[in-house]
Design a protein that fits this description.
mainly alpha; Serine Threonine Protein Phosphatase 5, Tetratricopeptide repeat; transmembrane
């Protein structure tokens, strides 16, 4: 009798687990947005980032794409952050999205949205060994100006943290090419000195 009860309980448990897996699979496929909420609430940030990509691929909306890029970046999934980030930056609605977001948040908290997003995409490119692309991206975004919260500072800070002397030297060369007046751009001298220390210049 005891064996029968144990066997029945085992079968019931297996059925429950199987049902849970089926439901999980269905939600993952048909309702990734629900899975984003669930994984976010459970603190499963990696899974949440993955489901965020699925949400974007279903919706095609730039808001969902930006969220996916940020979540991938935040969990260190630099491959997807670089890939989807490049897609984000080339989206024709990128400028409008950034302007809208700047109006919704205090832009001086993380920097202007465009510079912030370009910065994290550039860092992701750098960390996936696409350094030249990263440098070209931030150089173009600088537009011959310097701001302490700009994309080039994001990238330069990462290079300094990594002790990447050669890359710090490349950033310095790009800055020299911009011919910026240090008196007009507060923070530029400090940024240069930080790069020079690592580059050995």
């Amino acid at each position: 009798m005891g064996k029968l009860i144990a066997k029945t309980a085992g079968i019931t448990l297996a059925a429950i687990v199987a049902l849970a897996l089926v439901l999980l699979g269905m939600f993952s496929w048909f309702a990734p947005g629900i899975m984003v909420t669930i994984t976010e609430n459970l603190g499963l940030e990696g899974a949440c980032a993955s489901y965020s990509i699925s949400v974007y691929e279903r919706s095609g909306e730039i808001d969902d794409l930006a969220v996916a890029v940020e979540r991938c970046y935040n969990v260190g999934d630099y491959e997807n952050a670089a890939s989807y980030g490049s897609e984000l930056l080339s989206d024709e609605g990128f400028d409008d999205y950034c302007a809208k977001r700047d109006n919704e948040i205090a832009s001086d908290y993380i920097g202007d949205t465009d510079q912030y997003l370009i910065g994290i995409v550039a860092e992701s490119l750098y960390r996936t060994n696409q350094k030249e692309n990263a440098l070209n991206l931030v150089s173009a975004a600088a537009n011959n100006e310097f701001r302490t919260n700009s994309a080039i500072v994001y990238l330069g800070t990462v290079a300094v943290e990594q002790g990447d002397a050669a890359f710090c030297s490349q950033i310095l060369s790009r800055l020299d090419g911009m011919q910026l007046d240090e008196d007009l751009y507060p923070g530029l001298k400090t940024f240069r000195e930080m790069l020079q220390e690592v580059a050995g210049e």
